[in-house]
Amino acid sequence: MTAPKDKSADGAPGEFSLGWTVLLAALLGVTCGASPIPFNLIAFTVEPLSAEFGWSRTEIIFPATIYGLIASFLAPLFGWMADRYGVRPVALWSLFAFGIALAAIALTPISNDQTTLYTYYGLWIIIGLVGIGSTPVTWSRAINLWFFKHRGLALGILLLGTSIAALIVPKIAVWAIAEYGWRNMFAIMALLPLLIALPVAYFLFRDPTPAERPRAIGGADGRLTGMTLSRTIRGYRFHIMWVSITIVAGCYAGAFINMPTILADKGLSAQTAASVMGVLGIGILVGRLLTGALLDRFWQGFVAFPLLCLPAITCVILLGDDVSFMMAAVAAFFLGFAAGAESDLIAYLAGRYFGMLHYGKIYGSLYMPFGIASALSSILYAYVRDVTGSYDAVLIVAFFGFIIGGALLLLLGRYPDNFDVAPEPSSDALPSLA
Asked: What is the pLDDT of residues 147-201, one digit of tens each?
């Protein structure tokens, strides 16, 4: 990755020239952090854990819900710490703790009793307690501080980390389980945050100095400006975003996780479903980059509403009785595209509508409904399938959910021109890895 040749209007170095190394480090932090890795490897533990312990599929997949819920409730706390102490100490310590906790799953007892299951769950609880600081909740704050004119594109590049993880983590997991067993797979996977993301972030990642920040995010005296969390919550925009995020995430996550079984119900083979999921991953990647670029040029409502309506087409296609590979691929691409768009939107809208002074707490509070709805959605989709024998009922609900969730963002209005200037948090630091 090389620094783009950009300059500001006055001839000073542009945002990418100043911040590209930080963006690279943050990209690797997201890729190897606690946002994508747990969800991309846990499905591959079903067969070996079932064979060794006799646990049900629900018992084996349940840690993803445990982790998702705990991380979601802690997101505002880690966001506050990033606001208070800076992103660098929070993100680096969380990467380190996440790697150690992930490796510790290799120590799951061999004995086959109920205590073993509870121990396994307990290790996942620890991941939830320490890992959220290595997710976009923290990294996106720094990128918002380095970028303004090209903020949408920079956030899109940052969030490509989850797409990259989706491409490499399953392959590593399958190889490691086949060669060394599922326990050692967790230890091997822990090397990603510990030996790749952490060293790069240690040397390349830092928060910008006041002089390096884009002028648009500060007041006349250079201090950051923005709304407090309490003032934000009292405003209508926060609640509109909260409801929109909950609806869209609740509709999306279940469709994503259950896509292979939805396609199996339509008569498509497992190999075909795997190819369709690859197309979905491409949709996420394209959605993140294109959405970011569009947000830099147009008001978010003109971007968000049409893009979040795309998965409604996905629902219509999947309601059909005869779904070909081509139609399934189109459905998956639209679903993935909208998923990439939503992830960009949460980080972008938090900064543009509420400012950067208390961004971490506010973003964490908006991440909470995203994480909770995503964690519960997969169970809801599966429950509807078990009760009714079909996914059609929940797909019909999701059709309207995607449209309503996107339309709500049209009510946010124009971006604020400025924010009340308030003192920045003091620079008391957490113990630093530097």
From this structure: 988 888 898 899 888 888 877 888 888 899 999 999 999 999 999 999 999 999 9
Counts for the chain of helices (H) and strands (E), in that order: 18, 0
Per CATH, the number for 15-217 is: 1.20.1250.20
Model confidence pLDDT, tens digit, residues 345-369: 888 888 889 988 888 899 889 988 8
Helix 57-85 with 114-131: angle, nearest 10 deg: 30
What are residue 226's DSSP bridge partners?
Answer: 355
Q: Report the CATH superfamily, name and number, of domain 226-413.
A: MFS general substrate transporter like domains (1.20.1250.20)
- Residue 225 bridge partners (DSSP): 421
* pLDDT single digits (tens) 191-207: 999 999 999 999 999 99
Q: Where are the domains of the chain?
A: 15-217, 226-413
Q: Is the dihedral of CA 349, 353, 356, 359 positive or negative?
A: negative
pTM of the model: 0.79
* Torsion from C-alpha of 368, 252, 97, 178, nearest 10 degrees: 160
What's the start-to-end Cα distance of the chain, in Å?
Answer: 24
- The SS3 assignment for 224 reads strand
Burial class (CB within 10 angstroms; exposed 0-12, middle 13-18, buried 19+) of 376: middle
Closest CA to 116 of 67, 161, 55, 71: 55
